């Protein structure tokens, strides 16, 4: 067995191990084997690793000093399969990203200020820049506070996340087909790429109210088979090729708000319904809500300074700023928590570097 310094953290509504990139094999195939072992992929409970048996807790963040002059740290996200043994580094995860700033300070990658520290993060998955404002009174990360986010019990210190850019994160264009709305197999959709490529559709077009949650949607395999058919064609149109083995594009189902929000949303990962909402998905949906012609724009309650997304666990708030009609930044307040710090043990591998020190 080999040991690797590790910190288990909750970021937003996701959870997973945070690792220094330098402590992992440099070759992607060797690195992925290590990640599969760390998480315990291939078993419903991920019983032989630290994964939680659900896509929201079968994630890994790899962080180290940035190779770019415009950022403090580089962050590579990996979605690891639960039952299926796969590692997908195509998407970003905005919830895990919330804990990158605190981790970078804890790991000595960024010097903390008093009373707060801005950590400049470059997301390797999408080559986008994000600022994380972390509470650091006395130069120490503070996790205690009075900020609550729906989908997480209790209260914690706020972490403000500001996305800079993000248009065309994987496709090179906000609307890869140059259309704000089109039809796939009789279903009106918006194919949009803002922080994450997404196929967006109205719940009514699939015979749904939009109020259904994971407990109702996840067992409906016919529903997911229908979504997958649409998603495969969306991926082809967006220039992503055959996406049958990829989690991109993600899927967002929208409907009218019921509780004073801007829009109601259901986010799919893509083969299960998110218990709340993804941060990157929220930024994509908020952008669509202020862009004429999209399926979200048609039903959104406009005139609100902040986009309020009603999701299965409550509400997510996204503040967007636009210039010349284009969204330039998007910000949200989330929370994070350090759960444990120590060494994680995996079967010894003859490849890759040995860990270089403690976190």
Report on the structure:
The chain is an alpha+beta fold and 359 residues long. It contains seven helices and 16 strands. The chain has helices at residues 28-39, 94-98, 100-106, 214-217, 221-237, 279-289, 295-299, and strands at residues 2-11, 14-20, 59-65, 73-80, 87-88, 116-123, 128-135, 158-164, 182-184, 187-193, 197-202, 250-255, 263-268, 307-311, 314-323, 326-346. It has an eight-stranded mixed beta barrel. Strand 3 and strand 4 form a beta hairpin. The longest helix is centred in the middle third of the chain and has 17 residues, at 221-237. The mean pLDDT is 93.
What is the strand and helix layout of this fold?
Blueprint: E1 2-11, E2 14-20, H1 28-39, E3 59-65, E4 73-80, E5 87-88, H2 94-98, H3 100-106, E6 116-123, E7 128-135, E8 158-164, E9 182-184, E10 187-193, E11 197-202, H4 214-217, H5 221-237, E12 250-255, E13 263-268, H6 279-289, H7 295-299, E14 307-311, E15 314-323, E16 326-346
Parallel strand pairs: 2-3, 4-6, 11-12, 13-14
Antiparallel strand pairs: 1-2, 1-16, 3-4, 4-5, 6-7, 7-8, 8-16, 9-10, 10-11, 12-13, 14-15, 15-16
Looking at this protein, list some descriptive labels.
alpha+beta; eight-stranded mixed β-barrel; 7 helices
Concise overview:
Helices cover 17% and strands 34% of the residues. The protein has helices at 28-39, 94-98, 100-106, 214-217, 221-237, 279-289, 295-299, and strands spanning 2-11, 14-20, 59-65, 73-80, 87-88, 116-123, 128-135, 158-164, 182-184, 187-193, 197-202, 250-255, 263-268, 307-311, 314-323, 326-346.
Helical residue percent band: 10-25%
Report how far apart the termini are. Answer: 19 Å
Structural class: alpha+beta
Number of helices: 7
Overall geometry: globular
Main sheet overview: 8 strands, mixed, barrel
Q: Provide the succession of SSEs.
A: EEHEEEHHEEEEEEHHEEHHEEE
What quaternary form is this?
single chain
Average pLDDT rating = 93
Number of strands: 16
Main sheet: which strands, in order across?
1-2-3-4-6-7-8-16
